């Protein structure tokens, strides 16, 4: 079922602000809904394609099945429904932690995925909290580098800021090894999210140049 | 659940005819958007309640396309 809503300030416009009700603020916005007007999943704001549409159509159907299964009390469905909602950023950190505590069981794969997704959210909140303070960002970067060294890893979808604060710390500390680790992480994140875009390549290059300067300074 | 109807469409920008000195009104822009070729090519609905009712009757998901008329 297709629905098109042109957002307009026209006095005759129907359903003003409809998209906003569902958290769709960046236009154009594409999303799947149930017939009860519940948002199932929103297609990310990346270059839209047929393949992307099809991928998210299937994702929407999968999420509906998981939600139904979770409502029926199926243990696998409950964990996987929470994972799906975390992946689609439909659940915040506090709600995610509460719901996880209520899960009857998690298998090893689900446990690992929930760990990294909730860690992503925690990292996002921590970075937001130190926004505007270069010193606190570097402190956070040092902690995250240490965390990586101990084997705790966020998922590939972690905010780019995670790598930025690590790089900022390592640059200030003239830590070539740590900067290399951060740069590799940033490179992977940009490959995943920027898909060859020029801005992504420029960004990585700028940090590669910083690495060369760091090495030269040793 | 029936498979959601998936229509592959491309949004065609509709140029609003205007003289050189007059900016189109919001109503004109909205009318032009609603007259877009893509909206004629597939059974898009522009009434939310109507679309929901149809989706419920046909046991389908709803695919929503939210756009702006401020080109």
Report on this structure.
- With 218 residues, chain A is mainly alpha-helical.
- Chain A folds into two domains: 89 residues, no CATH class; 86 residues.
- Chain A is 63% helix and 7% strand.
- Chain A contains nine helices and three strands.
- Chain A has a two-stranded antiparallel ribbon with strand order 2-3.
- The mean pLDDT of chain A is 91.
- Chain B has 71 residues and is α+β, with helices and mostly antiparallel strands.
- Chain B has one domain.
- Helices cover 34% and strands 13% of the residues of chain B.
- Chain B contains three helices and two strands.
- Chain B is elongated, with a radius of gyration of 15 Å.
- The chains are: A mainly alpha (218), B alpha+beta (71).
- At the A-B interface, strand 1, strand 2 and helix 2 of A face helix 1, strand 1, helix 3 and strand 2 of B.
- Strand 1 of chain A pairs parallel with strand 2 of chain B, so a sheet runs across the interface.
